[in-house]
Design goal:
With about 525 residues, this protein is an alpha/beta fold. The chain folds into 4 domains: about 5-150, DnaA, N-terminal domain (GMP Synthetase, Chain A, domain 3); about 210-360, P-loop containing nucleotide triphosphate hydrolases (Rossmann fold), CATH 3.40.50.300; about 365-435, Helicase, Ruva Protein, domain 3; about 445-530, Chromosomal Replication Initiator Protein Dnaa, Chain: A (Orthogonal Bundle), CATH 1.10.1750. The chain has helices at about 5-10, 20-30, 35-40, 55-70, 70-75, 100-120, 145-150, 170-185, 210-225, 245-260, 270-280, 285-295, 310-325, 345-355, 365-380, 385-395, 400-415, 425-430, 445-455, 460, 470-485, 490-495, 500-515, 520-530, and strands spanning about 80-85, 90-95, 125-130, 235, 265-270, 300, 330-335, 355-360. The strands form 2 sheets. Strands 5-6-7-4-8 form a 5-stranded parallel sheet, with helices on both faces. It has a 3-stranded mixed sheet with strand order 1-2-3.
Length: about 525
């Protein structure tokens, strides 16, 4: 079947094509040399494989996986899409559900166009159709490879038929929508070519003891960036999902508002590397250097640790850093670890990253987590009881993104089931059943945990001793008893040697006030919360 096939005409690569395109053309050649009988034998195995273009789609899937990432690929592509037809510069893909069709059209159309162009060496118009939807009038439902090669000289007469197609979403579509909302929220991949997010500002950033220093310095930079301010070089690090990227966008928005003439570049380390690679490839390195040395007042690079083991990129970054720093420009970097903990980065770059202020963001305490949940509930216009918020805040302790994602998932399920959100629903939907196996926090468990952590006997904590260290540990235990256990001031006072409730109230207020400026106290509370 492949005899006489004009590979030179179809697979000829333009001079500008890269090696990867040539590799894909070789792959195409092997595809067309596949025995058609092998293709026919696979038709019965899987509905998604009932196309003569299955080998082409298999090659295309590898490119899509690389572009989209594993989570999105598994959710919207794997076993849900197949190539139905490919001719006259038009590609038709069949999809399983209306929801997947609309998602691919709105979010992933360019992925398909670009990947198909890389594979085939030419541009195609991409169309998505439902499996049970009537095919386009210009194509047939199934075409052989001869149809793809445009060999038939005449078209078969089309038979018109009509039927009613119910495109209203079914239960599976609605469930897919629920999970899609959560996946899109939880996806922490930095998009290519960052655009400053106007919705991320200082006003909607929840400040607590775990992030107050980072917030204060970021606010100061937004007010007075560069050599006119206190922190011309700022480095913020934290675990994923704790708000450092939010602060990065908030600083950019703040600088734009206060100094609209400043030229801001907010970019991920990954995109910085891509720009440099393209500059090498296109022989425009001087333009790249000019952009970062002459056309930028504020350079903000997210996830700077991704430069590790990229020696050429580090070399270029080193010179850009020196030039901008000497000119008094503002430099801001974020990472998942402190500069001295990043491996694969040259020592001279680590030293420069430490020139400015290095601040970290800790995991939020219970009070901050609850405030974040309340803010998110207001954003979603979601009514939710305090006991549900407390349950979530007590269970999800490590990630703000996951906290907010839990509310998005609850909201979607509540809409789907038309039910009010309660603790049982939260446990079921968010998989929090394991909390039932863990003993609930009590006044006694808080007291014992505080005793072990501060190395103060339980008897001394419950006594009326006024030793400074004992009093401080006692006030922390009171604070946790109020916020974690939910005990009243009177109940706490009774447990601690029949103290008056006003004394307990005063002690809790002191801890609340100290938390605003004491990061070590925040760490103490977070450790105790996780061990009660």
């Amino acid at each position: 079947m492949t005899q006489g096939f004009p590979f030179d005409k179809f697979l000829k690569s333009p001079p500008s094509h890269t090696k990867s395109t040539n590799k894909n053309n070789n792959l195409l050649k092997s595809i067309f040399e596949t025995d058609s009988s092998q293709l026919e034998s696979k038709k019965e195995e899987n509905p998604a494989q009932e196309s003569a273009f299955e080998p082409i789609f298999k090659a295309l899937e590898d490119l899509l996986l690389n572009e989209m990432g594993q989570v999105k690929f598994d959710t919207f592509i794997k076993n849900k899409v197949y190539l139905s037809n490919l001719e006259h510069n038009k590609a038709i893909f069949k999809v399983q559900t209306k929801f997947i069709k609309s998602t691919l059209e709105s979010s992933f159309l360019n992925f398909f166009r670009n990947s198909l162009k890389d594979l085939m060496g030419t541009s195609y118009e991409v169309t998505f159709e439902l499996e049970n939807e009537q095919p386009s009038s210009t194509t047939q439902e199934t075409k052989s490879l001869q149809g793809f090669l445009d060999q038939p000289q005449e078209k078969k007469r089309e038979t018109k038929s009509s039927f009613t197609l119910d495109l209203s979403p079914n239960q599976e579509d609605l469930q897919n929508q629920v999970e899609s909302r959560f996946i899109n929220h939880m996806d922490n991949e930095t998009p290519s070519g960052i655009v400053i997010d106007k919705s991320k500002n200082f006003d909607n950033f929840i400040v607590g003891p775990s992030n107050n220093l980072a917030f204060a310095t970021a606010s100061a930079v937004a007010e007075s960036p560069g050599k006119s301010g206190k922190y011309p070089c700022l480095y913020i690090y934290s675990d994923s999902g704790l708000g450092k990227t939010h602060l990065l966008h908030a600083v950019a928005n703040g600088i734009y508002e206060n100094h609209p003439h400043f030229r801001i570049c907010l970019i991920s380390a990954r995109d910085f590397m891509k720009e440099l690679i393209n500059a090498y490839k296109d022989k425009t390195l001087s333009d790249f250097q000019r952009k970062y040395t002459e056309n930028i007042d504020v350079l903000m690079i997210d996830d700077i640790h991704e430069l590790k083991n990229k020696n050429s990129t580090q070399e270029e970054f080193f010179h850009i850093f020196n030039f901008l720093h000497d000119k008094g420009k503002q430099l801001i970097f974020t990472s998942d670890k402190s500069p001295d903990k990043i491996t694969g980065i040259e020592e001279r770059i680590i030293t420069r990253l430490q020139w400015g202020l290095v601040v970290d963001i800790q995991k939020p305490d219970f009070e901050t987590r609850t405030a974040i949940l309340k803010k998110k509930a207001i954003e979603l216009d979601l009514f939710i009881q305090d006991d549900v918020l407390n349950l979530i805040a007590s269970s999800i302790k490590t990630s703000i993104r996951e906290l907010e994602g839990s509310l998005i998932r609850l909201e979607a399920h509540a809409e789907l089931m038309e039910a009010e959100i309660d603790t049982e629903m939260a446990r079921d939907i968010l998989k929090l059943q394991e909390l039932n196996d863990k003993p609930a926090a009590t006044l006694e468990s808080v007291c014992r945990a505080s005793s072990q952590y501060f190395k103060i006997p339980v008897a001394d904590l419950r006594s009326k001793s006024r030793n400074k260290n004992i009093v401080n540990a006692r006030h922390i235990a009171w604070y946790l008893s109020k916020n974690i256990v939910g005990s009243t001031f009177m109940e706490i006072g009774k447990y601690y040697s029949n103290r008056d409730h006003s004394s307990v109230m005063h002690g809790v207020s002191k801890i609340t006030e100290k938390l605003k400026n004491d990061s070590q106290l925040s760490r103490d509370l977070i450790f105790l919360e996780n061990n009660i």
